[in-house]
What we know:
There is one protein chain. By secondary structure, the chain is α+β, with helices and mostly antiparallel strands. 34% of the residues lie in helices and 37% in strands. The protein contains three helices and six strands; from the N terminus they run H-H-H-E-E-E-E-E-E. A hairpin with a 4-residue loop joins strand 2 and strand 3 (70-72). The strands form two sheets. It has a four-stranded antiparallel beta sheet. Strands 2-3 form a two-stranded antiparallel ribbon. The protein is globular, with a radius of gyration of 17 Å. The chain has one domain (23-116). It has helices spanning 2-20, 24-34, 41-50; strands at 56-58, 63-65, 70-72, 75-87, 90-100, 106-116.
Amino acid sequence: MMRRCLLFLITLVLGSAIVACKPAFAVRHSLLNETPIGTTFERVLKYCSTVSLNCAVSKTAGFLNQDTGKVVGVQSIWATLSQNATIPLVKSTVTAYWGFGSDGRLIDIWVWRTNDAP
Length: 118
């Protein structure tokens, strides 16, 4: 009985995670459609406002891409796109980062998905 319950829980966790998560590359693709490479810093801020994102700004630093370990750009904007409980006690967060060159134009977008659990 215990083994069956454990198997059920594992299946539930994996199934919930798959259904609840749009892949980061798909989110990035959607953001690139709205804010393509070369978009100005101000235009990305306007996009944030238009879609009611609470965007944070750094005019003095790019963002650290955790996948590559490299800093992207010299200015950045970031926002939490979603935050929800995928299963009890597990919180999934999707954050987008826009990196800009010294000319104030977008050079890359990175989408970071994190899962927090006790």
